[in-house]
Amino acid sequence: MKKICLSLVGLYISLLQLHAQSAKDTTTYEAKKLAVEEVNLVSSLYGQTGDHSPVTGGIGTENVTDFANGLDLQLVGQDANAHKHTITFGLGFDHHTSASSAYVSKTGASKTGGTRIYPSVNWTVENLKRKNSFGVGLYYSNEYNYKSFGLDAEFSKKTNTNGEFNIKASAYLDKVKLIYPSELIPNTTVTDAGGGNTVYTTASGRTVSLSGGRRHDESALAIPSTPRNTFAVSLSFSQVFSQRLQGSITTDLVEQNGYLGLPFHRVYFTNDSVRVENLPGTRYKLPIGLRLNYFLGDKIIIRTFYRYYIDNWGIQSHTADIEIPFKITPFLSISPFYRYYTQTAAYYFAPYATHSFSDTYYTSNYALSAFNSNFFGAGIRIAPPGGILNTKLSSMEIRYGHYTQTTDLVSNIISVALKFK
Amino acid sequence: MKKNILIAICAGTICLATTSCKAVKEYQKSRINDSEMSLSGRKSQKNELNFQSYREGSSGANGGKNGGGCGCN
Predict the structure, then answer these.
(1) A405 vs B55: CB contact, 8 Å cut-off?
(2) CA Rg value for chain B
(3) Which residues on adjacent β-strands are paired with residue A64?
(4) What is the pLDDT of residues A76-129, one digit of tens each?
(5) A369 within 8 A of A341, measured Cβ to Cβ
(6) Whether the predicted pLDDT of A218 surpasses 50
(7) Residue of A nearest to B64 (CA)
């Protein structure tokens, strides 16, 4: 019996060693000029209704429509040293209408629409011999009250055992324009500081000193902005477990600092007074996500995702997501999905007119309240080998989702993704 | 006896896990490489992840944004 056990252990160790031997890479790599590999176009139409807008202190319409479009162009090339270069240029364009934006002005006369433009560029170099890759990216986003500049760098390394490790560092340096609710805009004051100097305090609270008897400066009238920065380190590890099962674990360590509220969000207090929401200047977030995908039989795939999240504002959340693509043919699949989400409230949240005037931090933004949400829908994906109708359109996805929150927020989203090769 | 069975189960599970992680060859990855098996999100999910990150208090670890952006509306 002992001999059998020892033989089995020996056999197992030799099997391990056999698997551990990595074949020597004798492949010859040919240089390829950088050329367009694929073009992706994603468009989404989003509609939302609700009655807890933070613009009006946690009551009032939250109706939003958003039409988002993103185009990215991917170029791929290879040098003789087995370095594969991938450069992706992206351009996004969104247009939204938001009913609550009208009430930035007390009378409901503010504009309700806006556009956002966001270009990006990413460059990744993959070393095919060493099985690692390095990439950098730059991102920019601009809308009338918000600007964002982002950059990231990432490194990936494949293991000899069907695993891959990835580390990514990113930073977003944003600017929030201080557009206050009309009744809360500070009064403009002009003070004579003596000696021909004038101190001019703008309506938005910025102080400008003017000398030489000047009492007016156009630049001082511009609405000032204030920074909001986000720094994140993401770590992930993915692993193929068998011919049918693979999974990954991802965590992000996130620090945000600066102005983390929005200047046009009102908060009403128990004494009927009103202020702009006030949130702490730092926030630390820690989400951990697990994915597990399993190919069941020949036609069904089970895609699962779970995330636990915690931050120092008191929010803890759980997200569970399942999607079951069913292959009607090898090139046509339909994918029903369901997502459940639950979170606790931030320490600083209270509904309309329930905050105490003595509170240091306060918000009535229901995104920071305790709630559950359900999101379900289905997608269809077509990707025939010769392209759809023998054109360069290699794949098409259409996806619809219906979202409900226990805060009464309801939304619908439909997205179309086209890939040209 | 029960202890031995437990040890055997644990040892078996570890053996299975460690060998199965290494046993999949490139030519055996037809199912793993299927586009529906991808561990990253779908292109058509991008805007879903954006709206969820703005309508909910948490974000990240899912291929979507972990910060940055306004979500003003």
Answers:
(1) yes
(2) 21
(3) A48, A98
(4) 999 988 899 999 999 999 999 998 888 888 888 888 888 999 999 999 999 999
(5) no
(6) yes
(7) A252
Is pLDDT at A51 greater than 80 in this prediction?
yes
pLDDT digits (tens, 9 = 90+) for A52-75: 999 999 999 999 999 999 999 999
Q: Which amino acid does the sequence have at A47?
A: G
CB contact under 8 A, A234 and B20: no
- And the tokens for A161? 């055992």
- What are the residues whose beta carbons fall under 8 Å from the beta carbon of A6, sequence distance 6 or more? none
| Nearest by CB: A415 against B47, B60, B61 | B47
Name residue A398's amino acid: I
Task: For residue A242, list chain B residues with Cβ-Cβ distance below 8 A.
Answer: 20, 23-24
Q: What pTM did the predictor assign? A: 0.85
CB < 8 Å to B41, chain A: none
Q: What is the per-residue pLDDT for A217?
A: 58
Give contacts of B52 with chain A, Cβ < 8 Å. 341, 375, 403
CA distances, A227 to each of A88, A147, A216, A252, A259 (Å): 28, 10, 26, 22, 6
> Which backbone phi and psi does A392 adopt, to 5 degrees?
-75, -5
Instruction: Verify whether the Cβ–Cβ distance B39 to A343 is below 8 Å.
Output: no
**In sequence order, what E strands does A62-110 have?**
64-78, 83-98
Mean pLDDT across A224-246: 95
- In angstroms, rounded to a whole number, what is the distance separating the alpha carbons of residues A67 and A46? 6
**Long-range residue pairs from A19-28, CB within 8 A, at least 24 positions apart, any chain:** A19/A161, A19/B19, A19/B22, A19/B23, A20/A160, A20/A161, A20/B22, A22/A160, A25/A129, A27/A82, A27/A128
The mean pLDDT value of chain A amounts to: 89
A125-133: Cβ within 8 A, 24+ apart: A125/A83, A125/A84, A125/A85, A125/A86, A126/A83, A126/A84, A126/A85, A126/A86, A127/A82, A127/A83, A128/A27, A128/A29, A128/A78, A128/A82, A128/A83, A128/A84, A129/A25, A129/A29, A129/A82, A131/A157, A131/A158, A132/A156, A132/A157, A132/A158
Taking an 8 Å cut-off on Cβ atoms, the answer to whether B69 and A174 are in contact is yes
The reported pLDDT for the residue numbered A195 is 74
Of all residues in chain B, the one with the smallest CA distance to A247 is B39
Which residues on B lie below 8 Å from A40 (Cβ)?
43
